[in-house]
Design a protein that fits this description.
With about 260 residues, the chain is an all-alpha fold. It has three domains: about 50 residues, no CATH class; about 60 residues; about 110 residues, no CATH class. Helices cover about 75% and strands about 0% of the residues. The protein has 13 helices and no strands. The chain is globular.
């Protein structure tokens, strides 16, 4: 899984740099840093050398360290202590790994670059604060992929097909990529990650519909509940049992987390 995921990531990373390289004045060292030492995909922001960046506050550092520590604790400690089936242990470990990497370590890397004056924005932006499904996917969750999909899928297709078809195709493409990274290494669960993201696209359409606006699905407490139900409810489609059993659990055993 890791080799396939890294290959896809590296290809997309190169594509984002290639598009921005001629539009933003920058040094060769900044390009190398973007390609090798930053997980985000907003090449233009990272490469631009004359942009003023505020130094991160102490509480930001503390929050990033706490998320990293909690993720490590879940992955190497709590998972093995959870009673019940191995599938549950795998889920606890997987949540810990996501917290350790995407929310914790990557946040620390972003703060380190900001400290050096580079506009490196964390790829996770407090997703639990989202009060709509649109806000969750568009402004808070995995902003690296969001930037990439906006630049290379949504923006070109929106001019030809309109906003909604372009949005739906972004979700479909995300599902296909996740199927490649999740289902192919697991040799099972094919189509479930794609179905998950198709459902997210349908959820956004419902939220933005006339009925959805009347019900308040895009704001406030109702919007948050709707967002949580849409994202967490079918999560077993995204991280399906074959993936947890065939990829996550063996990986946890290999790194002594189980």
């Amino acid at each position: 899984m890791w080799a396939l995921a890294f290959s896809i990531f590296a290809g997309l990373k190169w594509l984002s740099w290639w598009q921005a390289r001629g539009e933003v004045p920058h040094t060769a060292s900044r390009s190398i840093a973007y390609l090798l030492a930053w997980p985000g995909m907003d090449a233009e922001a990272f490469l631009l050398a004359d942009r003023r960046v505020a130094r991160p506050a102490a509480r930001e550092w503390l929050l990033a360290f706490v998320k990293t520590a909690v993720g490590a604790g879940l992955f190497w400690g709590m998972a093995r202590a959870v009673p019940g089936p191995l599938l549950l242990q795998g889920w606890v470990g997987m949540i810990g790994l996501i917290l350790l990497l995407h929310f914790g370590s990557f946040h620390l890397v972003a703060l380190a670059w900001q400290r050096l004056g580079v506009d490196a924005r964390p790829i996770m932006s407090a997703p639990l604060r989202a009060t709509s499904l649109s806000e969750f996917w568009g402004k808070r969750w995995n902003l690296g992929f969001r930037q990439l999909s906006y630049d290379f899928i949504f923006r070109p297709l929106e001019r030809r097909l309109g906003a909604w078809p372009a949005t739906f195709l972004v979700f479909l493409a995300s599902g296909v990529v996740h199927d490649m990274v999740i289902s192919v290494p697991a040799r099972g669960g094919y189509g479930l990650p794609t179905a998950y993201f198709v459902l997210q696209g349908a959820g956004v359409a419902v939220e933005r519909s006339r009925a959805g606006r009347r019900l308040g699905l895009g704001r406030g407490v109702r919007g948050w509940l709707y967002m949580a139900a849409c994202t967490a409810g079918p999560a077993f489609w995204l991280f399906h049992p074959p993936f947890v059993e065939s990829v996550i659990l063996p990986f946890m055993k290999a790194v002594k987390a189980l």
